[in-house]
Design a protein that fits this description.
486 residues, alpha+beta, 3 domains, 9-stranded antiparallel sheet, two-stranded antiparallel ribbon, 15 strands
Amino acid sequence: MLKKWKFNIPSRYFNTLPESLREAKEEELIQLRNSILWILYLNDLREEKRRAILEKMLKYRAHIEKELKTHPALNPAVVFLILPKKERQTLVSHIRDVLKKIEHHKTITTRLLLNLIGYIWDKHLTFSENEYRFLLELSKNPAGSFREWSRNTGLSLSGIKKIYEKLRKKISLRIISMVNFNALKLKHYFIHVRNIHRREFSEELKNSFMKLFWNRSVMRFASDPKVLTISMLIPSHGKCIRNFIKNIHLLEKTKKIKIDVYEVKEIFKSYNFSIFDPKVGWRFSPNEWKNLVERNVEELNRFNSISIHRMIYTTIPDFKLSKEDLRLISMLNMDFRIGNTVLKEVLKQSPSFISRRKKEFLEKGILIPVFDTAINLPNDVLIICEGSSETLDKVFYSSLYLPFVIGYRAKDIFSNTNLLFLYIRLHSATIWDFIQICKELKKKIGLKEIYYEYQGTYCRSLDRFIERWDEEKQHWIWYTEDFKLM
C-alpha cells in the first residue's frame, strides 16, 4: 500500500534552486517550489519508473497532495499525463530558464513566479479556418465523439482527429467537467471577507482558510487586497452547516471584519467563439456589450443559444456512490477525456464499469463537460451583482456575449438576497474599458463589487475528501475541528 512508497526527491534538485526559492516561507510559494522540484525530477526518470510513481500519485492523490504539498496550478501528475510530450519538454525547458532568471532575486512572489512560468501559454495564437470550425464545435459540444464532431463540422473523421491532436499541442487543449456538488451531498459556499485592515492579517486569514479540510480555494485580487473570497464544500448535514456558520460568526466578531456567506445554486460556463477571428483574435467590444445591457431580457435571450453549459445544483435521491465512483468523478472533473487505459490502471476497475458509470454521471447531471482553455485571454475580472430576478437575468444573458465567463448564481444565507458572481477572462486591450463601463452601468446591472488582477489559489481536487465518505451510510464524516479558524 501507500506506506511502502517513499516520495522523496534527491537533495541535489533542491540545492540547485535559487536562494529565494530555497528559503521560501509563504505556504503557496512553497507549494509552487515543490511542484517545480517534482516536475524536474520526474522528467529525468526513465519512463517505467516515472509511470509507476504517477499511478500512485493519481490513485492516492488526496494523501499525496497533503504529503508533497504541491501547487494545484502546476500539478506534476497533470503535467505528465495530460500534456503532450513536446509541450511537456517545452514547459520543463521554460521552467529551467525561469529558475536561471530569478537566481539573483532576493525575494520572489508566487504571482511573479506563476506569471514567469505561465507566459508561454499566453502567447498570441492564430488558427486555420478548419481549426476554428473545430473550436467552435468543441465549445458547444465538448462531450462529443470524433464522429459527432466530424458530422457537425463537415470535416473528415481523419481530419478532425489530426486537428484535435494538433490543438492539444498548440493550446494545451483541455475539457474538464463541472460537478453537481449537491448530488454528492455537499453544499457549495462562498465566504466573502471584507474590511481586512492589514496585509499581514490578510495572509494569515488566507492560510487559516487554506488549512480547513473542506476548503476548495481562496480568491484574492490585487485591486483590493483587503478582500478575500473563499470557496468551500460543506457536507449537507444540518448540524454540520450550523457548526460551520457558528465559526464564521465567531471569526467575524473576534477579528472585527465583515463576512458574508453565499450558497451557490448554479454554475455556468460560456465560451463565445462567435466573436473570435482565427487570424486576428478576439473582436470583443465593451461598448457593444454596454448596448446589450440596455436591451430587455426577451431580446437578450437569443444569446442563450451560444456555447453555454449550465449546472444547476440539485440532489439526486436514491443514487448510491462508492469511493471508486468519487475517484472517477474527481478524475473526470480534472480531465473529461482522460483515457480509459489510465482510468483502468489508477482505479483498478474494468473498462465496462468505467464506461457505465461515466454514462450515468452524464445522464443524471452529476457531470457536465466544458471546454476550459482560455485562448489569448490573459486578464481576469470578477464582478458581483445583486438585485431583482429581472436585473440578474439581464446580466446573465448579456454576459454570454463575453469571450469567456464562469458564472455563479448564489443566495446570501442571512438576507436571502440573490447574487451573480461573474469571473471573466479578457484580452489586455479591452479590460480597462470593460471595467470602466461596468462602473458606468452600476445601477442597471446591480453592480455590488468589481475586482481585477487575480492573485488567489487554484481549486483543490475532490480527492482530498474521499476518505471521509461513508459508503454504507451514504454521507460524509465530519468533525467539529474541521471548521475551527485562527
